[in-house]
Amino acid sequence: MKISVIGAGQVGAMTAQRILEKNLGDVILLDVEEGIACGKSLDMMQSASLEGFTAKITGTGDFKKITGSHIVVVTAGFARKPGMSRTDLLFKNADVIKMVSKKIREYAPNAFLLMVTNPLDIMSYIAMNITGFNPAKVIGMAGILDSARFRAFLAQELDVAMQDIQTIVLGGHADSMVPLIEYTTVCGIPVTQFLSLTALEKIVEKTRKGGEEIVSLLKTGSAYYAPSSSVVDMVSAIISNSRRVITASVYLKGEYGYNDIYLGVPIIIGKNGVEKILEISLTQKDRLALDKSAKIVKDVIEEVKEKI
Ligand code: NAD
User: Fold this and answer.
1) Whose CA is nearest to atom 22 of ligand 1?
2) How far is the CA of 38 from the centre of ligand 1 (A)?
3) Span 220-279, pLDDT tens digits
4) How far is the CA of 76 from the centre of ligand 1 (A)?
5) Domain boundary residue among 116, 140, 164?
Protein backbone atom coordinates (compact mmCIF):
# COMPACT_ATOMS: atom_id res chain seq x y z
CA MET A 1 0.00 0.00 0.00
CA LYS A 2 1.15 3.51 -0.79
CA ILE A 3 -0.52 6.16 1.34
CA SER A 4 0.14 9.83 0.76
CA VAL A 5 -0.53 12.42 3.42
CA ILE A 6 -0.82 15.96 2.09
CA GLY A 7 0.08 18.53 4.74
CA ALA A 8 2.79 17.72 7.26
CA GLY A 9 1.38 19.85 10.07
CA GLN A 10 -0.05 18.55 13.32
CA VAL A 11 -2.74 16.27 11.90
CA GLY A 12 -0.74 15.17 8.86
CA ALA A 13 2.40 14.24 10.78
CA MET A 14 0.49 12.41 13.50
CA THR A 15 -1.50 10.55 10.82
CA ALA A 16 1.73 9.51 9.08
CA GLN A 17 3.19 8.29 12.37
CA ARG A 18 0.10 6.23 13.23
CA ILE A 19 0.05 4.67 9.71
CA LEU A 20 3.70 3.69 10.08
CA GLU A 21 3.31 2.32 13.59
CA LYS A 22 0.42 0.16 12.41
CA ASN A 23 2.44 -0.89 9.33
CA LEU A 24 -0.52 -0.05 7.10
CA GLY A 25 1.66 0.97 4.16
CA ASP A 26 4.50 3.15 2.93
CA VAL A 27 3.91 6.84 3.45
CA ILE A 28 4.63 9.91 1.34
CA LEU A 29 4.42 12.98 3.56
CA LEU A 30 4.06 16.11 1.44
CA ASP A 31 3.98 19.77 2.40
CA VAL A 32 4.51 23.06 0.56
CA GLU A 33 7.03 23.64 3.33
CA GLU A 34 9.25 20.88 2.01
CA GLY A 35 11.71 21.09 4.91
CA ILE A 36 8.94 20.35 7.43
CA ALA A 37 7.82 17.25 5.48
CA CYS A 38 11.41 16.03 5.05
CA GLY A 39 12.47 16.78 8.62
CA LYS A 40 9.47 15.08 10.23
CA SER A 41 9.81 12.09 7.87
CA LEU A 42 13.46 11.61 8.81
CA ASP A 43 12.58 11.82 12.48
CA MET A 44 9.80 9.21 12.10
CA MET A 45 11.99 6.95 9.97
CA GLN A 46 14.61 6.96 12.73
CA SER A 47 12.04 5.60 15.21
CA ALA A 48 11.39 2.47 13.06
CA SER A 49 13.83 0.16 14.85
CA LEU A 50 12.48 1.27 18.23
CA GLU A 51 8.79 1.07 17.33
CA GLY A 52 9.24 -2.06 15.24
CA PHE A 53 7.70 -0.96 11.96
CA THR A 54 9.00 -1.82 8.52
CA ALA A 55 6.90 0.64 6.47
CA LYS A 56 8.88 3.41 4.77
CA ILE A 57 8.30 7.15 4.86
CA THR A 58 9.46 9.80 2.40
CA GLY A 59 9.11 13.53 2.95
CA THR A 60 8.68 15.77 -0.08
CA GLY A 61 7.31 18.98 -1.52
CA ASP A 62 6.90 17.41 -4.97
CA PHE A 63 3.45 16.14 -5.93
CA LYS A 64 4.96 13.73 -8.52
CA LYS A 65 5.96 11.55 -5.57
CA ILE A 66 2.32 10.73 -4.81
CA THR A 67 2.05 8.89 -8.14
CA GLY A 68 0.37 5.50 -7.72
CA SER A 69 -1.00 6.21 -4.24
CA HIS A 70 -3.83 3.92 -3.13
CA ILE A 71 -5.05 6.39 -0.54
CA VAL A 72 -4.43 10.14 -0.21
CA VAL A 73 -5.21 11.83 3.09
CA VAL A 74 -5.65 15.58 2.73
CA THR A 75 -4.81 17.67 5.79
CA ALA A 76 -3.28 20.62 3.92
CA GLY A 77 -4.48 24.06 4.84
CA PHE A 78 -4.82 26.19 7.87
CA ALA A 79 -6.09 25.22 11.32
CA ARG A 80 -8.47 27.25 13.44
CA LYS A 81 -7.18 29.89 15.82
CA PRO A 82 -9.11 30.90 18.97
CA GLY A 83 -12.31 32.77 18.08
CA MET A 84 -12.24 31.46 14.51
CA SER A 85 -15.10 29.24 13.35
CA ARG A 86 -14.56 26.41 10.89
CA THR A 87 -16.41 28.52 8.33
CA ASP A 88 -13.96 31.43 8.79
CA LEU A 89 -11.40 29.10 7.31
CA LEU A 90 -13.51 28.62 4.23
CA PHE A 91 -11.95 30.74 1.55
CA LYS A 92 -8.35 30.34 2.76
CA ASN A 93 -8.62 26.58 2.67
CA ALA A 94 -10.78 26.40 -0.48
CA ASP A 95 -7.84 27.73 -2.51
CA VAL A 96 -5.49 25.17 -0.96
CA ILE A 97 -7.91 22.31 -1.66
CA LYS A 98 -8.44 23.39 -5.25
CA MET A 99 -4.70 23.35 -5.90
CA VAL A 100 -4.14 20.05 -4.05
CA SER A 101 -7.12 18.37 -5.80
CA LYS A 102 -5.76 19.26 -9.24
CA LYS A 103 -2.44 17.65 -8.32
CA ILE A 104 -4.15 14.53 -6.98
CA ARG A 105 -6.20 14.25 -10.17
CA GLU A 106 -2.98 14.48 -12.17
CA TYR A 107 -0.75 12.12 -10.17
CA ALA A 108 -3.04 9.78 -8.23
CA PRO A 109 -6.21 9.45 -10.32
CA ASN A 110 -7.12 6.05 -8.86
CA ALA A 111 -6.69 6.93 -5.19
CA PHE A 112 -9.24 7.05 -2.41
CA LEU A 113 -9.38 10.54 -0.97
CA LEU A 114 -9.83 10.99 2.75
CA MET A 115 -10.49 14.64 3.49
CA VAL A 116 -9.61 16.25 6.83
CA THR A 117 -9.19 19.96 6.09
CA ASN A 118 -11.92 22.22 7.51
CA PRO A 119 -14.60 23.27 6.92
CA LEU A 120 -14.77 19.58 6.27
CA ASP A 121 -18.04 19.08 4.40
CA ILE A 122 -17.29 21.96 2.03
CA MET A 123 -13.67 20.91 1.38
CA SER A 124 -14.85 17.36 0.61
CA TYR A 125 -17.39 18.78 -1.86
CA ILE A 126 -14.70 20.88 -3.58
CA ALA A 127 -12.25 17.96 -3.74
CA MET A 128 -14.85 15.64 -5.27
CA ASN A 129 -15.79 18.23 -7.88
CA ILE A 130 -12.26 19.21 -8.86
CA THR A 131 -10.88 15.66 -9.00
CA GLY A 132 -14.01 14.36 -10.73
CA PHE A 133 -13.52 11.15 -8.70
CA ASN A 134 -16.34 8.75 -7.98
CA PRO A 135 -17.99 10.22 -4.84
CA ALA A 136 -17.76 6.80 -3.16
CA LYS A 137 -13.97 7.35 -3.14
CA VAL A 138 -13.98 10.86 -1.64
CA ILE A 139 -14.86 10.69 2.05
CA GLY A 140 -14.69 13.36 4.74
CA MET A 141 -13.47 12.44 8.22
CA ALA A 142 -15.77 13.96 10.82
CA GLY A 143 -18.49 11.78 12.37
CA ILE A 144 -16.04 9.13 13.51
CA LEU A 145 -14.21 11.83 15.51
CA ASP A 146 -17.36 13.52 16.80
CA SER A 147 -18.70 10.11 17.88
CA ALA A 148 -15.38 9.32 19.59
CA ARG A 149 -15.64 12.56 21.55
CA PHE A 150 -19.25 11.84 22.53
CA ARG A 151 -18.22 8.32 23.60
CA ALA A 152 -15.33 9.67 25.65
CA PHE A 153 -17.48 12.21 27.53
CA LEU A 154 -20.23 9.65 28.17
CA ALA A 155 -17.76 7.04 29.39
CA GLN A 156 -16.20 9.59 31.76
CA GLU A 157 -19.62 10.52 33.13
CA LEU A 158 -20.70 6.87 33.56
CA ASP A 159 -17.28 5.58 34.61
CA VAL A 160 -17.36 2.73 32.08
CA ALA A 161 -15.05 1.61 29.27
CA MET A 162 -15.24 3.87 26.21
CA GLN A 163 -15.42 0.85 23.87
CA ASP A 164 -18.76 -0.13 25.39
CA ILE A 165 -20.42 3.12 24.35
CA GLN A 166 -21.96 3.01 20.88
CA THR A 167 -23.33 6.14 19.30
CA ILE A 168 -23.93 8.06 16.07
CA VAL A 169 -23.29 11.73 15.34
CA LEU A 170 -24.87 13.05 12.13
CA GLY A 171 -24.81 16.32 10.23
CA GLY A 172 -22.23 18.92 9.31
CA HIS A 173 -18.87 18.89 11.09
CA ALA A 174 -19.67 22.05 13.02
CA ASP A 175 -21.60 23.22 16.07
CA SER A 176 -24.78 22.14 14.26
CA MET A 177 -23.76 18.44 14.40
CA VAL A 178 -26.48 16.08 15.63
CA PRO A 179 -25.44 13.49 18.27
CA LEU A 180 -28.26 10.93 18.38
CA ILE A 181 -29.26 10.07 21.93
CA GLU A 182 -31.84 7.51 20.79
CA TYR A 183 -29.08 5.46 19.12
CA THR A 184 -26.67 5.75 22.04
CA THR A 185 -26.17 2.65 24.14
CA VAL A 186 -23.91 1.26 26.81
CA CYS A 187 -23.24 -2.26 25.55
CA GLY A 188 -26.67 -2.26 23.89
CA ILE A 189 -28.52 -0.75 26.89
CA PRO A 190 -30.13 2.60 26.00
CA VAL A 191 -28.10 5.39 27.61
CA THR A 192 -31.35 6.96 28.83
CA GLN A 193 -31.46 4.17 31.44
CA PHE A 194 -28.33 5.66 33.01
CA LEU A 195 -28.60 9.41 32.52
CA SER A 196 -31.43 11.96 32.49
CA LEU A 197 -32.17 13.86 29.28
CA THR A 198 -30.88 17.05 30.92
CA ALA A 199 -27.55 15.38 31.77
CA LEU A 200 -27.36 13.95 28.24
CA GLU A 201 -28.07 17.34 26.64
CA LYS A 202 -25.11 18.78 28.57
CA ILE A 203 -22.84 16.07 27.16
CA VAL A 204 -24.23 16.63 23.67
CA GLU A 205 -23.35 20.33 23.99
CA LYS A 206 -19.85 19.48 25.25
CA THR A 207 -19.42 17.22 22.20
CA ARG A 208 -20.49 20.02 19.85
CA LYS A 209 -17.86 22.26 21.43
CA GLY A 210 -15.27 19.46 21.72
CA GLY A 211 -12.99 20.82 19.00
CA GLU A 212 -13.41 24.42 20.13
CA GLU A 213 -12.45 23.57 23.72
CA ILE A 214 -9.13 22.18 22.48
CA VAL A 215 -8.53 25.18 20.17
CA SER A 216 -9.01 27.60 23.05
CA LEU A 217 -6.60 25.63 25.29
CA LEU A 218 -3.90 25.16 22.64
CA LYS A 219 -4.17 28.75 21.39
CA THR A 220 -1.98 28.08 18.35
CA GLY A 221 -3.77 25.24 16.59
CA SER A 222 -6.47 22.60 16.79
CA ALA A 223 -6.81 18.97 17.87
CA TYR A 224 -4.69 16.31 16.21
CA TYR A 225 -4.38 13.18 18.36
CA ALA A 226 -8.00 12.03 18.09
CA PRO A 227 -8.39 13.40 14.53
CA SER A 228 -5.39 11.37 13.32
CA SER A 229 -6.67 8.24 15.10
CA SER A 230 -10.02 8.76 13.36
CA VAL A 231 -8.56 9.11 9.88
CA VAL A 232 -6.25 6.12 10.37
CA ASP A 233 -9.26 4.02 11.40
CA MET A 234 -10.79 4.91 8.03
CA VAL A 235 -7.55 4.12 6.15
CA SER A 236 -7.44 0.78 7.90
CA ALA A 237 -11.12 0.02 7.11
CA ILE A 238 -10.53 0.59 3.39
CA ILE A 239 -7.31 -1.45 3.28
CA SER A 240 -8.72 -4.39 5.24
CA ASN A 241 -12.21 -4.14 3.71
CA SER A 242 -13.55 -4.38 7.25
CA ARG A 243 -17.01 -3.00 6.32
CA ARG A 244 -17.14 -1.08 9.57
CA VAL A 245 -20.17 1.10 10.23
CA ILE A 246 -19.02 4.63 10.91
CA THR A 247 -20.33 8.13 10.36
CA ALA A 248 -18.54 10.13 7.67
CA SER A 249 -19.18 13.11 5.46
CA VAL A 250 -20.25 11.69 2.10
CA TYR A 251 -21.89 12.89 -1.08
CA LEU A 252 -25.68 12.62 -0.94
CA LYS A 253 -27.86 12.25 -4.01
CA GLY A 254 -31.29 12.18 -2.45
CA GLU A 255 -30.47 10.17 0.68
CA TYR A 256 -32.21 11.66 3.71
CA GLY A 257 -33.92 14.00 1.21
CA TYR A 258 -30.72 16.02 0.51
CA ASN A 259 -29.11 16.54 -2.86
CA ASP A 260 -25.67 17.62 -4.07
CA ILE A 261 -24.22 18.02 -0.61
CA TYR A 262 -21.54 16.45 1.63
CA LEU A 263 -23.00 15.66 5.04
CA GLY A 264 -22.27 13.34 7.94
CA VAL A 265 -24.37 10.15 7.79
CA PRO A 266 -23.79 6.51 8.76
CA ILE A 267 -22.03 4.45 6.11
CA ILE A 268 -20.45 1.05 5.61
CA ILE A 269 -16.81 1.64 4.70
CA GLY A 270 -14.78 -0.98 2.83
CA LYS A 271 -12.63 -1.77 -0.16
CA ASN A 272 -14.73 0.46 -2.46
CA GLY A 273 -14.79 3.36 -0.04
CA VAL A 274 -18.44 4.13 0.71
CA GLU A 275 -19.99 0.67 0.30
CA LYS A 276 -23.42 1.83 1.42
CA ILE A 277 -25.12 4.87 2.90
CA LEU A 278 -27.37 3.77 5.76
CA GLU A 279 -30.67 5.63 6.00
CA ILE A 280 -31.97 5.37 9.55
CA SER A 281 -35.22 6.63 11.04
CA LEU A 282 -34.96 9.81 13.10
CA THR A 283 -37.11 11.40 15.79
CA GLN A 284 -38.81 14.61 14.71
CA LYS A 285 -36.41 16.64 16.88
CA ASP A 286 -33.32 15.02 15.33
CA ARG A 287 -34.79 15.36 11.83
CA LEU A 288 -35.26 19.11 12.37
CA ALA A 289 -31.74 19.44 13.76
CA LEU A 290 -30.34 17.55 10.76
CA ASP A 291 -32.32 19.75 8.35
CA LYS A 292 -30.86 22.82 10.06
CA SER A 293 -27.33 21.43 9.86
CA ALA A 294 -27.77 20.46 6.20
CA LYS A 295 -29.06 23.93 5.35
CA ILE A 296 -25.98 25.55 6.91
CA VAL A 297 -23.68 23.31 4.85
CA LYS A 298 -25.76 23.76 1.68
CA ASP A 299 -25.75 27.56 1.97
CA VAL A 300 -21.95 27.57 2.16
CA ILE A 301 -21.69 25.15 -0.78
CA GLU A 302 -23.86 27.50 -2.85
CA GLU A 303 -21.56 30.37 -1.82
CA VAL A 304 -18.38 28.63 -2.98
CA LYS A 305 -19.86 26.68 -5.91
CA GLU A 306 -19.40 29.38 -8.53
CA LYS A 307 -15.79 29.88 -7.45
CA ILE A 308 -14.83 26.22 -7.92
P1 NAD B 1 -1.29 22.72 10.50
O2 NAD B 1 -1.30 24.19 10.28
O3 NAD B 1 -0.50 22.15 11.63
O4 NAD B 1 -0.84 21.97 9.17
C5 NAD B 1 -1.31 22.28 7.91
C6 NAD B 1 -0.16 22.06 6.94
O7 NAD B 1 -0.66 22.21 5.60
C8 NAD B 1 0.97 23.05 7.10
O9 NAD B 1 2.19 22.37 7.38
C10 NAD B 1 1.01 23.78 5.76
O11 NAD B 1 2.33 24.14 5.33
C12 NAD B 1 0.41 22.73 4.84
N13 NAD B 1 -0.09 23.28 3.58
C14 NAD B 1 -0.72 24.45 3.35
N15 NAD B 1 -0.99 24.58 2.04
C16 NAD B 1 -0.54 23.44 1.43
C17 NAD B 1 -0.55 22.98 0.09
N18 NAD B 1 -1.09 23.71 -0.90
N19 NAD B 1 0.01 21.77 -0.19
C20 NAD B 1 0.56 21.03 0.80
N21 NAD B 1 0.60 21.43 2.10
C22 NAD B 1 0.05 22.62 2.40
O23 NAD B 1 -2.83 22.30 10.67
P24 NAD B 1 -3.39 20.93 11.30
O25 NAD B 1 -3.60 21.10 12.75
O26 NAD B 1 -2.57 19.81 10.80
O27 NAD B 1 -4.85 20.90 10.63
C28 NAD B 1 -4.96 20.69 9.23
C29 NAD B 1 -6.41 20.88 8.79
O30 NAD B 1 -7.21 19.84 9.34
C31 NAD B 1 -7.04 22.19 9.25
O32 NAD B 1 -7.89 22.70 8.24
C33 NAD B 1 -7.88 21.76 10.45
O34 NAD B 1 -8.95 22.64 10.71
C35 NAD B 1 -8.36 20.42 9.96
N36 NAD B 1 -8.83 19.50 11.01
C37 NAD B 1 -9.96 18.79 10.71
C38 NAD B 1 -10.45 17.89 11.62
C39 NAD B 1 -11.68 17.09 11.28
O40 NAD B 1 -12.31 16.56 12.18
N41 NAD B 1 -12.05 16.96 10.02
C42 NAD B 1 -9.79 17.71 12.85
C43 NAD B 1 -8.64 18.43 13.10
C44 NAD B 1 -8.15 19.32 12.16
Assistant:
1) 76
2) 16
3) 889 999 999 999 999 999 999 999 999 999 999 999 999 999 999 999 999 999 999 999
4) 4
5) 140
